[in-house]
Amino acid sequence: MRSAPSSSSDGYDIALKVLLGAFAVGLPLASIAWLGGNLTAWATGTGTWAPYRPADALLRPEQLWPQAGETSLLLTTRVIPVLVTLLLAAAGGAVWLRYKNRGGGRKKKVDGMAKARDIEPLLAKAIESKARSLRPSLKAAKHIEPRDAGVLLGNLAGTRHEVRMGFEDVAVAIMAPRSGKTTSLAIPSILAAPGPVLLTSNKAAGDAYTACLDARAVVGRVWSMDPQQIAHAERTMWWNPLADAKTLDGAGRLAGHFLAASVDASQQGDFWSKAGSNILSQLLLAAALNERPITDIMHWLAFPADRTPLDILRDHGFAAVAAQLKGTVEGPPETRDGIYETARQYASALLNSEIAAWVTPQKNIPEFRPADFVTSTDTLFLLSKDGGGGASALIAACADSVMRAATTQAERAGGRLDPPMLAILDEAANVCKISDLPDLYSHLGSRGIIPITILQSYRQGQKVWGDAGMDAMWSAATVKVIGSGIDDPDFADKLSRMIGDHDVETTSTSVSESGKSTSISMRQERILPADAIRALPKGSALCLATGMRVAMLDLRPWYAEPGAEELAAASARASQAITARAVAKQRPSKGDFEQAA
C-alpha cells in the first residue's frame, strides 16, 4: 500500500491533460494553416515558400506572406484548417467507436485471458509445423494451406490470430441453440476438411446439410443416409449394419446402439434392458453369420419358438451363445415374453419398410462401405430426428462403423490416416448415442480421426453417457469450446473456477483535515465469473485447450467469409429442393383419387 498527499496533485493532473489536449488539437490545426498559406502564396504568385513556423501561420499569417490578400489568408489559414481539423476529429471518433463496438468484429479483451503467447501451439506457425510431423504427405510441401494444417475454431479475441485445433486433437463443443455451433464450427470445418467427412444432424434445410452439399460434391462423392426423410432425399445408398456383427463383440456393439437409442444411461443396467439387449445381440449374430438381412430378426423376435437362429449359431461354432438363447426361449413364459417384448421395442424401427430399406440390400443401389469411405475424400451425411429410437440407433451404428473402419485403416497405414477424417457429431446426444464414445476419445486423435462432439449443454451429455462417462469425455477432449447461452449455474461456476483468478488493483480515496490521500491495494477476482460466462455475447466462445490458459475467441461464421454468396445461393437451392420434394410427397396422386372414388 502506498499513499500520497493531494494538496495540488489533482490540479497538476488537470493542467497536464488540458495542455496535452491543446497540443493534440493545436499542432495539426497550425500545420494545416501553414500548408494552406504556402499553397495560397504559390498559387497566386504573391510570395515564396515560407519555413515551417506553424504557430505564426495560425496566429500571424500576414508576417509569413505579407503580399497575399487578407481574405485569402483568412480562408486558408483560419477557416479551412478549422473545418479540416473538425472533420478529422469526427472521422477518428467514428472509427474508434466502430472499432470498439462493431457487432461480429473484434471483441473487447478480458483481463487475465490467454494472449497469443499463451496459446502458441494453436496458432499458425506451430499448427503448420505439427501438421508436417503428423501428415507424411505434407513433409516436403513448400507451403501448407491453413485448411491442411488444422480445424479453424476462430480468432483470438481482438486480434487477427487464427486459432486452430490440430489433426491429433479431439474436441467437445457445448453451445446452446443459435450460438454459432453450426454456422461457425460445423459448416466451416466441413468445407475446409482435407479428407473424408462424417456429419450427424437432426436438421437438413438451412443447416450444414444444405450449406455443404454442393461444395463437398466437388471434392468427392456425397452419401446421404436419411431413413426418416428429414431431407426427403432419394435413397441412393444402402448400408449393411451386420457387416461388423459376425463376432460376439460386434453383435453386442450393434445391439448396444439399439439399447442406447431407447433407454437413458441411468436405466441401461436394469434386468429387462440388459436381457433384451442380450437377446438382440444373439439374434443379430445369427443373422450376420448366415448373411441374412437385419430385418429377419423381427420375425425371430415375433416367434421365439423358431429354432432357426439356434441352428445357425450351433452350425457356426457358437454353441455357448446358442445355449444362452435356448435357455431364455425355454424359460418361464412371463420372463421370456417380457425379454422378447423389450427387444422388440428396441428394434421396432425395422418394422418400418421405409427405414429398413436403408439397411437391407437394394437392387441397383450402391452399397456404402465404410472401409472404402475412410480412404476417400467423400462425405457422409447421417440424418435422424430427435428421439428417433431405433432409427437413431442405425445412425449411431453407421457412425460407429465408420470410425472403427478408420481406426483399422490407420493401423494398416502406419498409425494415422492421411488425410485425416473429420467426424462432426452434431446433436450427438439426440441422434448419435454411441455408448462408449467417451472411451473412443482416448485414442481417436492419435489415429488421425478428429471427432467434434457438439452438445447443447453439459447435462445433456450426462443424460446420455452418465456422470462418469461425460466427465471422462470432457477430460479426454484436448480442446473444449464453450459458446454463449450456458444457463447451467453449476457448470458455469465450474468453468469460472477453471479459468481462474487474476490480480485487480483497487484504489480508495480518503479525506481528512490534512488533505486527501489515495491508497492502492491488490485483490484477486475471478477472470470470468459465472454470470459473465452466462452472458457471453453471440459470436464469442471460450477455448480450453490442454495445458494452456483459457482463451476468448471471436467466432468466424461461414457467411462472413469469402465466397459466402455462392455458398448461400447453393444452400438456398438445396433447401428449395427439399421443400419441393416434401410438397410432392404430400400431394395426392392420381391413384389416390381413383381409390377414393
Task: Describe it.
The chain has 24 helices and 13 strands. By secondary structure, the protein is of the alpha/beta class. It has 3 domains: 9-101, no CATH class; 151-155 and 162-240 and 361-505 and 518-560, P-loop containing nucleotide triphosphate hydrolases (Rossmann fold); 241-354. The strands form 2 sheets. It has an 11-stranded mixed β-sheet, sandwiched between helices. A hairpin with a 2-residue loop joins strand 10 and strand 11. The longest helix has 36 residues, at 9-44. The protein is elongated. Residues 1-8 and 102-108 have low confidence and may be disordered.
Question: Briefly, what is this?
Answer:
The protein is an alpha/beta fold.
Fold blueprint:
Layout: H1 9-44, H2 54-59, H3 61-64, H4 70-101, H5 124-134, H6 146-149, E1 150-156, E2 162-166, E3 171-174, H7 181-192, E4 197-201, H8 208-219, E5 222-225, H9 248-262, H10 271-289, H11 296-302, H12 308-315, H13 319-329, H14 333-346, H15 353-356, H16 370-373, E6 379-383, H17 390-412, E7 421-426, H18 428-431, H19 437-440, E8 449-455, H20 458-476, E9 479-482, H21 489-499, E10 501-512, E11 515-526, H22 530-534, E12 540-545, E13 551-554, H23 564-586, H24 590-596
Parallel strand pairs: 3-8, 3-9, 4-6, 4-7, 5-6, 7-8
Antiparallel strand pairs: 1-2, 1-13, 9-12, 10-11, 12-13
Helix pairs in contact: 1-4, 7-8, 8-23, 9-10, 9-17, 10-11, 10-12, 10-14, 12-13
Domain TraD/TraG TraM recognition site: 420-538
Protein name: TraD/TraG TraM recognition site domain-containing protein
Organism: Streptomyces filamentosus
